[in-house]
Amino acid sequence: EVQLAESGGGLVQPGGSLRLSCAASGFTFSSYWMHWVRQAPGKGLVWVSRIDNYGSSTVYADSVKGRFTISRDNAKNTLYLQMDSLRPEDTAVYYCARDPAIASHRTNFDYWGQGTLVTVSS
Amino acid sequence: SYVLTQPPSVSVAPGQTARSTCGGNNIGGETVHWYQQKPGQAPVLVVYDDSDRPSGIPERFSGSNSGNTATLTISRVEAGDEADYYCQVWDSSTNHVVFGGGTKLTVL
Questions:
Q1: I need a surface site. Which of A25, A97, A110, B101 has the fewest CB within 10 A?
Q2: Which pLDDT tens digit goes with each residue over B32-50?
């Protein structure tokens, strides 16, 4: 059974840092692109970042570029999101999601974690 | 960047057909995916590649995509279908993923 489990969320002050983790199991983690998607309270889904299966290619939403870093450890079956210079508008539930597509134009998310809440507030 | 437009809400009586639209410039040339999200839960993929269903998703869920509008159709709507529905594409001009704003389906 495919499982994704996020951790690392919590309360952080503006300007602070946080590292999220997503532990994957039930599939060959190293074969899949992975993404982070966030959802502010009461709002819609917003894509954050993508990493290829090797960890060599990354893409970021404009709102987080230069502040967030996505990475992965295929030996540990774990995806990460390092979040620096956090702002109140980064407050959201952060989901990791698996991308089963073999081509970018078909990118979609067939499995999601349950999410971890990040609150940026003083 | 590419923009996807969804109506904020759709209402339908049980047993009827619900249609949720997703508008975008020549979206028919893009590959559209749809997600269902119930309160307090993670999203679930219900339609991918415009019209395919993942295993475990009822046949009542179907998708189409042409021109400037993609549509998620839910036939014989049940109370358990009440949820937010999001469309999603990949924007080739920015290499980013784009979601629509979501449509809240209310079952009357």
A1: A25
A2: 999 999 999 999 999 999 9
